[in-house]
Amino acid sequence: MSISSSSETRKDPEIGSPVSAAPNASKRLLSIDALRGFDMLLIAGGGTFLVLLKGKTGIGAIDWIANQLTHPAWDGFTFYDFIFPLFLFIAGVSLTFSLNKGKSLGLSKPTLYRKTFVRMIVLILLGMLYKNAPVPFFEPSQIRLGSVLGRIGLATFVATWFYLNMDFYKRLASGMTILLLYYAALYLIPVPGYGAGDLSFEGNLVGWFDRTFLPGRLHQVTYDELGLLTQFPALCLTLFGTLAGEIIGKAWLDKRKGSYLAIGGVAGIALGLLWGLHFPINKHLWSSSFILLTTGMAFLFLLAFYWVIDVWKIRKWAFFFQVIGLNSLTIYFAYSFIDFGFTSRKLFYGLYTPLPEEWHAVFQAFGAFLLVWIFLYILYRLKLFVKV
């Protein structure tokens, strides 16, 4: 991990993905940075104050938004379920530009593999630190191995191999094959004591596999949604992201990029909802229907950001998200290791203390996020970007 102070030659500082520069240009795609920033805003807890607004305003729309920023207990889907899959997808989009840039500089396949492998190892270690701090070094059974960062690192490394060795259609077919095999495994492989096809919290194959083969602490006790088997469907999000990145990166597709991205989005959502009639949409299991639904949504979000920012050149509004997206690793760790809530209360409590006490937590959370953004803006002005 290092800190870059160059805005022109730096590698891309997003979590787990290499440089995001267009193959034949030095300019970055602002839309990808902005979309990453939008995603990180919610990954790092930027929507906490919206959740805290639930039931306080009497406005149904606000309560609906608050409900969308929490995860369902098991089956089902909310917008919050989309946040991490979107980041895995963005990692794949950025990966295409990074690898094309590396190839244009004459880097060999082994060199590119080595770079993404080292990044994977670093992200796995950082992920373990994030999930376990303070790390129980003398109680290894209490160390959780699964992590968001580790999943991003692994998906990016595997997607690198696919991108360097397969064309667009072979990668699409590979991703669909992985989802079909995952579907078959969960329905056909019997779990001791429960049988085959049990998708309940207690009896699913994912949980049994983690309890049997994954050492350390399992986040959900009986299984870990960032454990072993769910790595396979999660990888497909990054793999499908390389398809979107290839569409955007092809100059000869300029007049059809929007159509292709829209087709990918509509097809993904339709197939995900249709498959979900039999294989429930479930983030905890990373079900194949969930992967296709979120892939389709990611295509449409990318289309919207890309078209507005990089095609229509309407960019001023995106700066807020760009500041976050350029230092995504920083904000991810900052929320965990720095008590911005404490500082928010110290600075702003005098402003909101006259309000009813039930509103104090809302304004403290909003103040904390404001402080985080100011912190990232200062880093942006200093051209300091933490990268892996």
Describe this entry's structure for a reader:
This protein has helices at residues 30-43, 48-52, 60-68, 83-104, 109-132, 148-165, 168-188, 205-213, 231-249, 257-275, 288-311, 319-325, 328-337, 340-352, 360-381, and strands at residues 2-4, 385-387. By secondary structure, the chain is an all-alpha fold. The model is unreliable at 6-26 (pLDDT under 50).
Strand order of the largest sheet: 1-2
Output mean pLDDT.
Answer: 89
Share of helix, binned = 55-70%
Q: State Rg.
A: 21 Å
Number of strands: 2
Largest sheet: number of strands, sense, barrel closure? 2 strands, antiparallel
Label this structure with key terms:
mainly alpha; two-stranded antiparallel sheet; 2% strand; 388 residues
